[in-house]
Amino acid sequence: MTPLRSKPERTITAPRGVRDLRLGRLGASLPVTPPDPNQVRPAARDEIYQVVMGAVLLGFLALILCFSHGYVLLYGDAVAHLGIARRILDSRNPGLVQFGSVWLPLPHLLMLPFVHKLEWWQSGLAGAWPSLVCYVLGVAGFFRLCRRMLVPRWALLATAFYALNPNLLYLSTTAMTEPIFLALLIWIVLMTMQCIDAIQANQPSQVARRMIWLGLLIFAAVFTRYDGWVLGAAVWCILAWQLWRTQGLGRRVAPSFALFTLLALAGPLLWLGYNQHFSHDPLDFMRGPYSAPAIEKRTSPPGSKHYRGWHNPGWALLFYTRAAQVDAAAWETGFALMAASLAGLWIAFQRRIARASMLLWVPLPFYVYSVAYGSVPIFIPQLYPHSFYNTRYGMELLPALALFACVAAAAMEQRLVKTGTASYPPNAAVGISSRPLYLTALTLVLLNPLAMVYGTALLQQCAKWIERHPSNLLANYSPPLVLKEALVNSTTRVPFERNLALVLEDLPPGASILMQQSDHIGALQDAGIPLRQTINESDYDSWHAALQAPADHAAFVVALSGDTVSKAVEEHPEGLQELTILCGTGQPCARIYQSEHFPAAGPAGDR
């Protein structure tokens, strides 16, 4: 087959005003070379603008869909994040002490401008706005990252795979921390690549500026998720190695490198100091009452064995990678996606293609270690015990899977061209319609989110069409994993909190309430009760005083079976009159008491 000839280069005449400004005379023509579709280069501004506009549209469509279906507050963690942000402003003792000692504070700080509005706190929109902004920033940064490694069509394809992921779009409408950290991860990797390029080009001013930006981004990542601690250390080691290899440049950027080091260290040191000051233990987030080991011990049935993956890195690797596959791709195509991304990783390493991009794989060893030795189980329906827990952690690998799978596909296309299998030479300006491999990949990328969202209905129709039993065909199928976990795990919690909220709404306005909020703050949120009206575990002095004499410190007491307040009521029942008992399937019973010693309405404030 005769190869197609390369089209001659077009000459585009600039507008007259532009010619006059650039050349200083009339009638001159300025030849403009159209961009090469096979060139790997930094993204142009107009390209980024189009990607940002597409991300904004997708984000708002996802918000409208999830908000209208009531998905925004399905995750108990999302409700808790909103509660922490709210109590920083609205509590008996507002301020820094309300950050708590386990969850890192940046996501809650980003919610502060929105959570003070009661309606946005109740609806969950206060947490959706920061997540949506970070989703858009993450998509824009991911496209810029891809353009440094791929030609435009493959970079856009990888970005589309990332941006169209239904699980990511859902999380971007909630108060969860994944969209924020993914945006920071992407921009840290991108800025590291740019900094290394500046080091190799011996541009000290560019190196200094990018190191300061990197320090700020690492500082933000450290205060978002604990993955950021490992990511920051890895970036510091890479840049220190690059500067050590470059003679003379290290001395010229030493002040900036010192500031970069200070910013990278400041986050962990400040958090350790915060835990020491408020919890009297710098490692309270690792071994305190609300740490992962304490939660795992408290939620495990007595005498039960540890989860699979406990002190077993092999099982931990299996659970995490399998969760990442199901989070990213429909049905069992995740295996092919993982294989392609590992092939792309090997190609990038072997060809020395932006090796700093391999930082996108940092979540893999972090979560394998966390599952094996950090009391952080991951349960997915595809593996025993076939349940849902922490499935969203697999989302941290989505950028790596999207980018490196396209690196492998682009390398395969290039190889087909070189071996003569394709019908066009490497430098030919061939349209997309003439690239069968790209068209196949594009079709799969567009079908993937549709299959993840509507796969069940499609399978049912196919089953009916071939006259088979749908139950056999759908036995091991799960809709988008992260959303499915939220739906399953909120089945009993949401109705229970709604019913408890209805009871709390009938209490006199402004009446003080003693209640432990760590598990069911959603009831107060749903009822629209200001947190300053409650006595809870976030206010140390008033909390412990109230536990010694509940009837003397609050007008009403809400005791949930097995919590600290219920134990205090058992030990000090004097002066309490039981009003209501509320029980729900899979939830503790709530007993509401009225104090005979405390006025029903007090100075705690009204709604």
Q: What does the model show?
A:
This protein is mainly alpha-helical. It folds into five domains: 1-34, no CATH class; 44-176, no CATH class; 190-282; 291-488, no CATH class; 493-595, no CATH class. Helix content is 58%, strand content 5%. It has a five-stranded mixed beta sheet, with helices on both faces. Helix 6 (125-147) runs parallel beside helix 9 (178-200) and helix 16 packs across helix 17. Mean pLDDT is 87; it is low at 1-30, 423-431, 465-477 and 603-607.
Spatially, the strands of the biggest sheet line up as: 2-1-3-5-4
What is the residue-averaged pLDDT?
87
> What is the β-strand count?
5
Structural class: mainly alpha
Percent range for helical residues? 55-70%
Beta-strand residue percentage: under 5%
Alpha carbon gyration radius:
28 Å
What composes the largest sheet?
5 strands, mixed
Total of DSSP H or I helical runs spanning 4+ residues: 27
Low-confidence runs: 1-30, 423-431, 465-477, 603-607
- Cα separation of the termini: 78 Å
User: What is the count of structural domains?
Assistant: 5
Shape: globular
Compose a concise summary of this entry.
The chain is mostly helical and 607 residues long.
SSE topology:
Elements: H1 16-23, H2 45-68, H3 76-89, H4 106-115, H5 118-123, H6 125-147, H7 152-163, H8 166-171, H9 178-200, H10 204-222, H11 227-245, H12 249-252, H13 254-279, H14 284-287, H15 292-299, H16 313-328, H17 334-350, H18 363-373, H19 398-418, H20 436-465, H21 470-473, H22 481-489, H23 493-505, E1 513-515, H24 521-527, E2 534-535, H25 540-548, H26 550-553, E3 556-560, H27 564-571, E4 576-584, E5 587-595
Parallel strand pairs: 1-2, 1-3
Antiparallel strand pairs: 3-5, 4-5
Helix pairs in contact: 2-6, 3-4, 4-6, 6-7, 6-9, 7-19, 7-20, 9-10, 9-11, 10-11, 10-13, 11-13, 16-17, 16-18, 17-19, 23-24
